[in-house]
Amino acid sequence: MDKVGSFEIAGFNHSDKKFSIPDQKKLYGIMPHDRGKPYDSITLVTQLMDDGVFEQYKKDFGKTIICGFGRINGWAVGSGCQQPTNR
């Protein structure tokens, strides 16, 4: 819940904490060259988030969609994407 902004600042939430950025070169190994093949979206989204931290929302609600929260460059963001490995 640390990513929910306050009403006074229009819901924007930024942390001044210095985050470590995961190795972005790992992204090339997550996505297959043949985009028709399944890949793990959770791993992909986690790589994009600061410190590799992604909090899933209603993890067991649906197996083909991923929703959650994280931080990118200190800014709180929400993410929603499809999970191709569970088609």
If you had to describe this structure to a student in words, what would you say it looks like?
The chain is α+β, with helices and mostly antiparallel strands and 87 residues long. It has one domain (7-86): Alpha-Beta Complex (2-enoyl-CoA Hydratase, Chain A, domain 1). 14% of the residues lie in helices and 22% in strands. The chain is built from 2 helices and 3 strands; from the N terminus they run H-H-E-E-E. It has helices at 27-30, 41-48; strands spanning 54-56, 65-72, 75-82. A 3-stranded antiparallel sheet has the order 1-2-3, covered by helices on one side. A hairpin with an 8-residue loop joins strand 1 (54-56) and strand 2 (65-72). The protein is flat and about 45 Å long. The model has no long low-confidence stretch (mean pLDDT 80).
